[in-house]
Amino acid sequence: MEMRSRFYESASARKRIVTAEERERAINAAKAFEPTNPFCRVVLRPSYLYRGCIMYLPSCFAEQHLSGVSGFIKLQLPDGRQWPVRCLYRGGRAKFSQGWYEFTLENNLGEGDVCVFELLRSREFVLKVSVFRVMESAGLMYRSQ
């Protein structure tokens, strides 16, 4: 019970009021970023951050690049730091579960932020994550140079 209340406290602390302009700025910045490797963009919704903390990747990306994954993959920031995250592919959909919440917390991700997931290596499944934030004061803006 104590663990559950801590989860909700920390999640509610990350909720933020975002203006349409801030949201649009983050989306446009993410759209301008075109990695050379296969990639997908995801705008973080409340359900990806709070309720159960499961995040689904776009089906077209999952089908082409993550089919057959059932276990832990690595999410890597441009600075090289990595987090193990459970990824399950089933029925044309891939979702992150265990480890995803820790990744969002440790990187101060919030509603409206846009993550670009870039496939670096497909044998051991490493996805580089570039974050485009709706609020720059929420933390460092991770982008490839």
Care to describe what's here?
InterPro entries: B3_DNA-bd, DNA-bd_pseudobarrel_sf, REM16-like. It is found in: Nucleus. It holds the Pfam family B3. It comes from Gossypium trilobum. The chain has helices at 2-13, 20-32, 46-49, 59-65, 100-106, and strands at residues 39-43, 55-57, 70-76, 82-90, 93-96, 114-121, 126-132. Helices cover 30% and strands 30% of the residues. The chain contains 5 helices and 7 strands. It has a 7-stranded mixed β-sheet. The protein has 145 residues and is an alpha+beta fold. The chain is globular and about 40 Å long.
Please state the structural category.
alpha+beta
Major β-sheet profile: 7 strands, mixed
Strand order of the largest sheet: 1-6-7-3-4-5-2
CATH class label of the domain at 38-132 = Mainly Beta
